[in-house]
Design brief:
By secondary structure, this protein is of the alpha/beta class. Helices cover 47% and strands 9% of the residues. The chain has 17 helices and 7 strands.
Length: 485
């Protein structure tokens, strides 16, 4: 037996131990890399249809729109018994009758002497004429006989202040094109010059928009008060470029009113600066972003459209996560049950039905937690353990079950937060057209005007007429009844 036999055995054992440690480390490293690769693949597969990502992040390869509604088997389009809304005869200021005579009557010596037999069917053509109206305001003076010859003179209306000025109609058109129409100031200037022959300069258009913001200021404050007394409101926020920096446009709205405000901060600080949420005591429907949960003076409800999209993405990325599809089916069943109850004019589902739904909801999440256990701390591992987005969603749905299912117990609470998201879409259009708002005051003016216009549209009122009334000093009366004395 060689003298160094024991030493060789010891050396080999040490080498084996070192290799085993390296192998264990490599396995852990591979696990980490596999997790990173899986997460990156999941991110690549995410889009606005299967996650909370906004449509603007989809880029040029936008996904095919897919509805979350269940297929009913019915054909697309209007269903039997649906009342159509075709082209109707509008209220016209001018009606012109245009007679079309037979070809034989052209140049005939007997034209006008032949007896008329009948008039064919009438076909109506709806058209518009754009014309400029010049109103000449002047005052007159008289020697009043009642006042023993005293000279009395008329006075100009309050709004007529200059020898040459634009009227409420022109102002309303310019301001509506810039705000509701999302046209830039320069484009409004070009349009008015081309269509009306009026060289309204860009500076004048800007002044008109600022005047409109001033005129609707009191009405916007009344909108805030109306929202403050409403038991359920929706809230959301989106990025808004102002002065070359990222600001945030916050929205609070319901089915009748919309309030928009611009803030430098997105989170709790910005919300407190606006002042609405700290003073509100109803229910706020949101996308479950953490900043809303900093307020305990109101109750919370969660947007289930966000949840449905996230569950869809989970099941698409990993078909083994069957619980995600089960939860989607359950949520759709819940909202269908609510619609049926609403059809019967109920205000909430029966308590036993709600408890049965809650039990099924809890069972699905319990299954999900079993399939996706919490990470285990490894020896020597420090810091907070990353649970990953999937487990975070499971924990969030578990912790906020009552908020997610509040729509079952109170039919005033909507199933989604779509109303708030829709109120912010116009900001994205404005950003694409203008790039950004050049000044903070201009952004505030835009938010005030769009608060007024969005509320006007929800009341079914013509936007142009409402804006014109605002320039005439009656913005409040457009949305609210006149105060009684």
């Amino acid at each position: 037996m060689p003298e160094n036999y024991d030493e060789s055995i010891s050396a080999l054992r040490e080498e084996i131990r070192v290799l085993r440690e390296e192998l264990a480390q490599m396995r852990e490293l591979l696990k980490e890399k596999d997790a990173v690769i899986a997460e990156l693949k999941e991110q690549l597969r995410k889009n606005s249809q299967n996650s909370s990502k906004p449509p603007s992040s989809d880029g040029y390869r936008k996904p095919r729109p897919v509805s979350n509604r269940e297929k009913t088997g019915r054909k697309a389009g209007a269903q039997p018994g649906h009342q159509g809304h075709g082209l109707k005869m509008p209220k016209a200021d001018v009606i012109e009758d245009v007679a079309h005579l037979p070809e034989e009557c052209e140049g005939c010596a007997h034209f006008g002497t032949c007896p008329k037999v009948a008039t064919s069917s009438v076909r109506n053509e709806i058209d518009v004429e754009i014309k400029v109206v010049l109103k000449r305001h002047y005052t007159e003076s008289y020697a009043c006989a009642k006042e023993r010859g005293k000279i009395v003179s008329g006075s100009f209306p309050e709004g007529i202040k200059s020898s040459m000025q634009y009227g409420a109609g022109i102002k309303a058109l310019a301001a509506t094109l810039n705000t509701e129409g999302m046209m830039s100031v320069e484009r409004v200037h070009s349009f008015l010059s081309a269509a009306l022959g009026l060289p309204v300069c860009a500076g004048t258009v800007s002044a008109m928009v600022k005047e409109l913001a001033f005129q609707v200021g009191g009405t916007v404050r009344a909108i805030v008060q109306a929202l403050m007394t409403n038991p359920v409101n929706n809230a959301d926020e989106t990025g808004f470029r102002v002065e070359g920096s990222l600001y945030w446009l916050h929205s609070v709205c319901n089915e009748l009113f919309t309030y928009l405000a611009v803030q430098k901060k997105r989170g709790e600080k910005g919300m407190r600066e606006i002042g609405f949420l700290p003073a509100y005591h109803g229910v706020i429907v949101s996308d479950c972003w953490g900043a809303y949960w900093k307020f305990d003076n109101f109750s919370h409800a969660i947007c289930n459209a966000h949840i449905l999209r996230e569950l869809k993405g989970i099941h698409e990325n990993d078909p083994k996560q069957s619980w995600a599809e089960d939860m989607r089916s359950l949520l759709r069943e819940m909202v269908h049950a609510r619609h049926e109850a609403e059809r019967l004019e109920a205000s909430a589902l029966p308590s036993e039905t709600v408890r049965a739904f809650q039990a099924r909801y809890d069972a699905i999440l319990e299954q999900a937690a079993g399939v996706n256990p919490l990470p285990v701390r490894q020896p020597g591992q420090r810091g907070r353990l990353a649970k990953g987005p999937l487990r975070c969603l499971i924990d969030r749905l578990t912790a906020h079950r009552d908020e997610a299912l509040r729509f079952l117990e109170d039919f005033r609470v909507p199933f989604t937060n779509n109303r708030a998201e829709q109120s912010l879409r116009m900001a994205k259009v404005k950003g694409k057209v203008s790039g950004c708002m050049r000044t903070l005051s201009g952004a505030d003016d835009f938010a005030a005007i769009m608060s007024f216009i969005a509320s006007v549209k929800k009341h079914g009122i013509n936007v142009f007429s409402a804006v014109k009334n605002a320039f005439l000093g009656n913005a409040y009366g457009v949305l609210f009844p006149a105060p009684t004395e």
